Amino acid sequence: MSDARAWVETIGQRLAHWRSRGLSGTWVVAVSGGGDSVGMLRILHELAPAVQLHLSVAHLDHGVRGEAARADGEFVAGLAASLGLPFDLGQWRPSRSGHFESDARRARYAWLIEVARARGAGVVAVGHTRDDQAETILHRIIRGTGPRGLAGIPRRRRLATDPALSLVRPLLDISRESIRAYLDRLGQPFREDASNTDVARTRARIRHELLPRLAADYNPRVAEALVRLGSLAAASQRAIEGAVRDVARSAVVTRSEGSFVLKHPFFRSQPLYLRTEVLRSLWREAGWPEGGMSARRWRRIGEAVMTLESGSFDVGAGVVLTSRFPFLVLHRAAPSPGTAATDAPPGPVLLPIPGEVDVPWAGGRIVCTVETAAPADEAIDLDRLEIPLSVRAPIPGDRFAPLGMGGRSMALADFFRGRGVAREARARTPVVCDRRGIVWVVGHRIAERVKVTDSTRRRLMLGWVASR
């Protein structure tokens, strides 16, 4: 059996397994015209009769590549017609500068959901490959991630905006090279998107520069190693999620809109990571904003369960953890009208180096130390600062060049929006500034220009301490 036949049959077995577990047989196949999605369409079309799939093809024009994009659409329409499949063409135009990738992704999935509903489909299929998985995991490692992020992208999940629909990635175990070879044997052409080679984009640099360099100089099978790491992390994450569900089931006494009541003695007897993950899962269940919740802040909440004998702990985002022994209450009150106006500071306050400053309107204080091993949220290059430092609330027109964006500046409001920070929380998120502008959006990210590098001689440690 040829290599191609082996992995195509493996995909067929997975499809049959999904169908036997109740997955819908009516699929919308998202096809950009590139090799991965064209390969997916041809494979699914080949396997469809055996597993009783009913396919349609969907292509969205993202409105930025002019004639090339129109040619892509015509190519995909022709391919669908040649296979005797229904075809949907969508049009979208970006409305904001500097946010194309995230906005295009949201628009693409929203449109695919609309197409699926119109077609009566229960599944949307996308053409992510093993190479995409490796790139995603490496990208997350570079940005700094935990076990959940190391798990990469799932092979199958519910579409968050429509739980009746499933998103599947049938090719997630298959290399891009294998898919190209499959298409070559079929004599099937595909389109090349020039924007995929634009190394101004981080993802393109990882694909065309970093991964090839790692493969050439360190491990020729680095992509497989990254994917294997993702599989192990995903298995670990599933085990953790099972344990979290068990603890939550035993710990939560009541749940209602805006609050959860837990058994304090039982909950505090659990390991720190389980306490933290249960609180995180309840937070998500309630739909509370997560934009300002860093890993350190989650850990502090888990630790507070042990020390909170009575009284309350201000978590942030309007959420309060209160001990009413033997119960523990996690509660978010609606913001009082006019609170921001009465509590907001009249202007910036100086942050001494070293030293600390209270930020009562945000519910905590900022601590600043030089070259210390004490825990801190962020480390920055002291010599890149233009002191003095100050702390203030965001103001209209603020701009910020976040770490990881290559020094590119963006409106602070857009940064908050991308992080999912609720509107009512944005005005109460402190920012640390030097003479040049924002250095740290507290609880989120530092500026690219002050990051620690190999040439850093002095490190400044910044930490946020929530009021108890």
What's the structural domain tally? Answer: 3
| Residues in helices, as a percent range | 40-55%
CATH superfamily heading of the largest domain: HUPs
Largest beta sheet: what is the strand line-up?
Answer: 3-2-1-4-6-5
Which class of the largest domain in CATH terms? Alpha Beta
Which structural class should the secondary elements be placed in? alpha+beta
Mean pLDDT: 84
Number of strands: 22
- Uncertain runs: 335-344
Radius of gyration, in angstroms, nearest whole number? 25 Å
Chain-wise SSE layout:
Elements: H1 3-20, E1 26-30, H2 35-51, E2 54-61, H3 66-82, E3 87-91, H4 100-119, E4 123-125, H5 130-143, H6 147-150, E5 156-159, E6 162-168, H7 176-186, H8 202-217, H9 222-251, E7 252-256, E8 259-263, H10 264-268, H11 272-286, H12 295-307, E9 311-316, E10 319-324, E11 327-332, H13 339-343, E12 349-351, E13 355-359, E14 364-370, E15 378-381, E16 389-392, E17 399-400, E18 410-411, H14 412-419, H15 423-426, E19 431-434, E20 437-441, E21 445-446, E22 459-466
Helix pairs in contact: 1-2, 2-7, 5-8, 5-9, 9-11, 11-12
What does it look like?
With 468 residues, this protein is α+β, with helices and mostly antiparallel strands. It folds into three domains: 228 residues, 3-Layer(aba) Sandwich (Rossmann fold), CATH 3.40.50; 76 residues, no CATH class; 122 residues, Phenylalanyl-tRNA Synthetase, Chain B, domain 3 (3-Layer(bba) Sandwich), CATH 3.50.40. Helices cover 42% and strands 23% of the residues. The protein contains 15 helices and 22 strands. The protein has a six-stranded mixed β-sheet, with helices on both faces. It has a five-stranded antiparallel β-sheet with strand order 7-8-11-10-9. Helix 5 crosses helix 8 and helix 5 crosses helix 9. The termini are far apart.
